Amino acid sequence: MAKIPPPLWLLAEVTHSCPLQCPYCSNPLELVPKKDELDTETWLKVLHQARKLGAAQLGFSGGEPLVRKDLEVLVGEARKLGYYSNLITSGVGMDAARVEKFRELGLDHIQISFQADDASLNDYLAGTKAFQHKLDMARAVKASGYPMVLCFVIHRQNMHRVAQMLDLAVELQADYVELATTQFEGWALANRDHLLPSLEQVRAAERVAKSYQEKLKGQMRIYYVVPDYYEQRPKACVAGWGRVFLAVAPDGLALPCHSARSLPGLELHNVREHDLDWIWYESSAFNYFRGEAWMKEPCRSCDEREKDFGGCHCQAFKLTGDPKNADPTCAKSPHHHLIGQAIDTSQLNLISSKPLLFRKR
Amino acid sequence: MSELNLTSVPKLAAGYRFQWEEVQQTHVLLYPEGMVQLNDTAAAVLALCDGQRNVQTLIADLERDYEIEGLQEDVLQFLVQAQAEGWIRYG
């Protein structure tokens, strides 16, 4: 097999705690309790080891990373080690002084997520009053000299308002806006019948995004992430298993993709007991889907197998029962009809018999 | 945003960081959730986009450091591309 490349991306999921309860959350249904979280010292060890391996991009994520009181310590160390560090946050737990402190410590970028463009829908989806605070924090981030990066997670319940979301981004003078359609993992999968958009919604949002992209060229960058349920080929999940991306969960499990915890037959290791160098290069989990030996048909003989690596193994497992099957979002998958069925079910069942499930805090 | 000419002063755009990566053995440009691996020429030019020197000085410095003449066209072409990518600004 070809030489294993070094990891370039470390995702530090420092906690699963979150003051918000978004029903599209991709965290697992079984959240890691606070008492099982890594301590500061172990996180510092993780940062050192991953940087030595080659990771240059670092994401502080969660849950809500601001819940961790030692985040400032980790941010400061990350800068000293030469990481480009990204804070991926709801903005709740932030104030202008904390933004300034992060800036002094060398945090490179803050991405604030919004649930919608107006207070009532935003706060309904977040399960708490947060909209006004998010606006204030977005302005504080911009005022302190950071590029402003906004993320709107879009799905059936808010997708009709993409134009208003982009208007809000313009008003806030955002530099980058991500319109990310919900990925159906964790809580989002449990709520799929409520969240899966229709084809008309997806195409309409795409048209709006395109027209704003043209209108705002050179001023604001807009990324529209099309939901894989409406594509003919799967996404190259985490740019290929064990090739670029390394996540560490709140309890210290090292994960090749942030949903990998759910996969059967995968022996995951903990950074408390093992060095990241060994975990990345030697452990069975990180080698499990490397190369092509694991592939079944139609992936094995597919001429696009080096492009998408068979897609998302977690999705293949959740929808077909076997993570080695092709991701069923691929039109070549013998299970592709499951995607069509999910779309039909969610569209027919407009008032679902199951209530919308808000995630636990 | 001002335009490119010999007296404009390029610098990295806000949120961009230029650095050497030991493991990759290459210079990279880092930005929110992204990274570009740079070839030697791109790295040599971006290293001098420091918000201090103008384009004319930048070209002269490169020609001196690398003992090559006639770099102007290549450098200008790269700067146009770098601005289009959003890597640099003039100010």
From TrEMBL, chain A:
One of its GO terms (biological process) is pyrroloquinoline quinone biosynthetic process. Keywords: 4Fe-4S, Iron, Iron-sulfur, Metal-binding, Oxidoreductase, PQQ biosynthesis, S-adenosyl-L-methionine. It is an enzyme of class 1 (oxidoreductase). SMART domains: Elp3 (SM00729). Residues 4-219 form the Radical SAM core domain. Its cofactor is [4Fe-4S] cluster. One of its GO terms (molecular function) is cyclase activity. InterPro entries: 4Fe4S-binding_SPASM_dom, Aldolase_TIM, Elp3/MiaA/NifB-like_rSAM, MoaA_NifB_PqqE_Fe-S-bd_CS, PQQ_synth_PqqE_bac, PqqE-like, Radical_SAM_PqqE_MftC-like, rSAM. Pfam families: Radical_SAM. Pathway: Cofactor biosynthesis; pyrroloquinoline quinone biosynthesis. The keyword Plastid does not apply. Its EC number is 1.21.98.4. [4Fe-4S] cluster binds at C18, C22, C25. It catalyses: [PQQ precursor protein] + S-adenosyl-L-methionine = E-Y cross-linked-[PQQ precursor protein] + 5'-deoxyadenosine + L-methionine + H(+). Binds 1 [4Fe-4S] cluster. The cluster is coordinated with 3 cysteines and an exchangeable S-adenosyl-L-methionine. Interacts with PqqD. The interaction is necessary for activity of PqqE. Catalyzes the cross-linking of a glutamate residue and a tyrosine residue in the PqqA protein as part of the biosynthesis of pyrroloquinoline quinone (PQQ). Belongs to the radical SAM superfamily. PqqE family. This is PqqA peptide cyclase.
TrEMBL record, chain B:
It comes from Thiothrix eikelboomii. Belongs to the PqqD family. Pathway: Cofactor biosynthesis; pyrroloquinoline quinone biosynthesis. GO terms for biological process: pyrroloquinoline quinone biosynthetic process. The gene is pqqD. The keyword Protein transport does not apply. GO terms for molecular function: quinone binding. Monomer. Interacts with PqqE. Functions as a PqqA binding protein and presents PqqA to PqqE, in the pyrroloquinoline quinone (PQQ) biosynthetic pathway. InterPro entries: PQQD, PqqD_bac, PqqD_sf. This is PqqA binding protein. Keywords: PQQ biosynthesis.
